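Progress against Task 2.4 (sequence-to-structure conversion) is shown through the following example record, which the project officer requested during the mid-term review.
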Amino acid sequence: MIPTPWICIFLALAAIPFIYYGIVLYSSFRFFQRAPGPTSSGRAFAPAISNLKPIRGLDPEAYDNLASFCRQDYPEYEVLFCVGDADDPTLPVVDKLVADFPECEIRVLFGSGRNATNDKVAKLARLVSEAQHEIVVISDSDVRVQPDYLRTVVAPLADPQVGAVTCFYVPTHETTLVQNLQSVGMLADFYAGILVAWQLEGVKFALGPTIATSRTRLSEFGGYQAIENRPADDLLVGRLIADQGYRVELLPYSVSTVADYQTFRDLFHKRLRWIVVMRHMRPWGHLGLIFTHGLPWCLAAIAVLPSLPVAAGYLGTYFLCRAGIIWMIGGRGLKQSIPWKKLVLIPVWDAMAFVIWLISFGRNSIRWRDNDYSIRDGMLVPVDTPEPD
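Structure tokens generated for the chain above:
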């Protein structure tokens, strides 16, 4: 069959995701060429730190996660928790930390003292206000770190042009199909997009598992209280600090997180929540994701011109690119084990991600911590809240 000009044009469009994949590979290679550890000048920069941890409920492996922040190779720091009330199931874990690490300064605050939709951000507003030190390191409760963590993430703040520091996160272990599928998505999809953004426009966001900044930088945009009713607080903190003219530094360094989801449904809602929020925050960028979904374009090309050369060329190039991205980011960059059985999940993840992307265009609500919220004018609103007159 001789392809018509229109078929040739369509086949060219179907190859656009390959260009994107090439940019991902190039960006990833450049990014991970950098040394992750602090420089000699960075090591000399060791200001006192307040390590801020908003807590809600008991995470899996909570003691190991929180204890890792008490084992830091750092001269002076405090660990400051904020829980909802005295009945929070994490409190016995915190009490054990106090007993096991008497040399570590640990404080606990009860309640945010605020009435906000985003309870985590309301707690962070109080944590920042009651922190003893100017430099603050914010991390989620499911994060686990190495002893060099504080020294590494704070070092770039020695440069006055750096307003915030963030880093990647990887799973502590992957024991189920769902967890392996999530890992494939993080490496081939989420981190791929982050590294392309770093290459093309710089980092104008932060990742929730780690944000190192100062109370001054936060206060300059109004602090956490200014975003306590908005979604994607981590992304917003980075963006608002970048908008002030400061650099947000993304490190080639990773912390670990313990999965708090076990079912395909949990993973589906987690991904859908993220993609719906992105559609509201960056509508044109969200629409442009159509040219990052290589699998449906490959299948469409085969449907338009069904032949062995087209099928082998498109699907072969697609799989090699996607496997290369996972190896470049996960294996070479983040030093993760990438078994071949994980690579088999690439088309499974890509098919799911494409379906979720399509669904996101019809959704204005998200599910977060077993509650449903609408997004109205960039704000989180509980679904049972009536529309304003």
